[in-house]
Amino acid sequence: MSVLRFSKLIFGSATVFFLIAPLIAILPLAFTDSVFLNYPIPAYSTRWFVELFTAGVWQRSIINSLIIGCGTTVLATFLGTVGALGLRDKQLSLVLTTIKTVFLLPMVVPAVVLGVGMQLMFARYALTNTYLGVIIAHTVVAVPFVVVNVLAVLQGIDRRLEQAAASLGAAPVTVLKQVTLPLALPGIVSGAVFAFATSLDEVVLTLFVAGPNQRTLARQMFSTIRENISPAIAAAAFVFIVGTVLIAIVVNFSRGTKRAKEVR
Amino acid sequence: MNNPFIRLEEVSKSFGLLTVVEGLNLEIGKGEFISLLGPSGSGKTTILMMLAGFENPTSGAIWAGGKRIDSLPPHRRNMGVVFQNYALFPHMTVSQNVAFPLKMRSLPRAEVKERVGKALDMVQLGSLAERRPSQLSGGQQQRVALARALIFEPEVVLMDEPLGALDKQLREQMQLDIRDLHRRLKLTIVFVTHDQSEALTMSDRIAIFNRGKIEQIGKPSDIYDHPSTQFVAEFIGETNLVWGTVKSMEGGTARVQLPAGQQVLVETATDLGPNSKVCLSIRPERIKVGRREAAGNNITAAVSDIVYHGDHLRLIARSDGQSLIIKTDRSQPTLSIGDEVQLSFLSSDCWVVRP
Lengths: 264, 355
What we know:
The complex is a heterodimer.
Chain A: H1 2-26, H2 47-54, H3 56-86, H4 94-104, H5 111-124, H6 131-155, H7 159-167, H8 172-201, H9 204-209, H10 217-227, H11 232-263
Helix pairs in contact in A: 2-3, 2-11, 3-6, 3-8, 3-10, 6-8, 7-8, 8-11
Chain B: E1 6-15, E2 18-28, E3 33-37, H1 44-52, E4 59-64, E5 67-68, E6 79-82, H2 94-104, H3 109-122, H4 138-150, E7 156-160, H5 168-185, E8 189-193, H6 196-202, E9 205-210, E10 213-218, H7 220-225, H8 230-235, E11 240-250, E12 253-257, E13 263-267, E14 277-282, E15 288-289, E16 296-308, E17 313-319, E18 322-328, E19 340-346, E20 350-353
Parallel strand pairs in B: 3-8, 3-9, 6-7, 7-8
Antiparallel strand pairs in B: 1-2, 1-4, 4-5, 9-10, 11-12, 11-14, 12-13, 14-20, 15-19, 16-17, 16-19, 17-18
Helix pairs in contact in B: 2-3, 2-4, 3-4
């Protein structure tokens, strides 16, 4: 038994190491003083962070990422929540099952294929090289995450709560606003976080539909690493990771306190 | 019934090929406490759901207060519903839960506050107004659910096994509380349960359901003393069912021969033809140990088991291949297994039931 536990421990640690090793490798480089993105680090400084937040291209790309990320989050959360509300029954008709599959399809369809299709289509509607175009493209791949998260919460809501509200005099819209949505909020919030994160690191679709004016942070990192390997990439990666971890902590914390309140 | 408050007319409900309620007719008077009693799957909850508006009848009509309501959405029916799992809103406090129906009716804030206070006092929960439902015990949650369903003074209160999740002692207390509220507030209550003793203690009338149809409807004492079918006799209380053949019939009393040859006298209102097969129901507490000449029916039996129940003894006795259960008080002379006993019962204690 102890052999089994020991090997579990070894295997678990190895998996965790495999997953986070690239992060551990890149993070210290954000604080290098050198102009090269490699080890050993001659001296430590924050010059690349200064570069990241002051240089025009980097600044622009951070703002673009925020604009597109927020736009995607709002659009994907709205569409995904509405979609999940329509698909919440545990037993769906054939039509609804098909629609559900279509909603989740962008998760498995190769981004390259989506990108080619979108570029052709967006060109017809003059959406290439526009913020709206990029936001729509990101929304397509972000919606499945919202649908999955909101559906999970909705299916856990007892229908009798909504029936009770209706019997007490609440019209369907009121039931939705006062009972269903407040109870689904944790799922909507984590869906929104996933949507924002998806938009932040989406590169392939951005390459296809975005013009030079919609260069996002991820896109900028991608081209920088090919053109001039600057440690600003490491600084950008650092910002990314810290931001993601912070969001995760906030979401977890807000859920945790809610649960604690209910138990008490 | 003169001027019923709720009327169901030939109501049927099917889900796909499965018919859950079939051609149901039911009238409920104003201020009446009626229980819908039956095993699970007998259609009783479906009827409640149709009254509340959560399900639509496949055919038939439902009337309430002179209006046809079967196409009205639930929020316009003005019926209070109490669910088995209480269905309290977990994201609201107790007082917000109770205030919900008043807010839906856009009452002024001061009035809402006053009525919520009164309603919580009525169910003795005034001190817990700011708690969340998850912080309350099952019994307290049930009281909140009651207060919430009653605060808007609905015309009808529908209860779906509201006491099913409570332990025995609390359940009995809540039975008395609900009965008391019913009397004080002159409520019309439709109460779904599968617990026969609950139905017997609380109801003005009981409707016994079996396979989507009403098997019998009437006052608790009528149903207990005069079950019309074998199903009702077995479902309500405990009974001995005995099959026999009618030998003769004179003046409301039939002479019925049991398979082993014994004959018993049975009082009955229906005219039974000679040689017809009948099923008799004899309640265990009606059979007395010891010979009584006046009783009309005296049989000899052998005790095959004695079960001690604290307040009473239960004898299992066999008489010519027929097993009988007898509920008797403990003042009996000591009996032991294998003893031969005389059993007696009145001809009016035998009741003919339809198979």
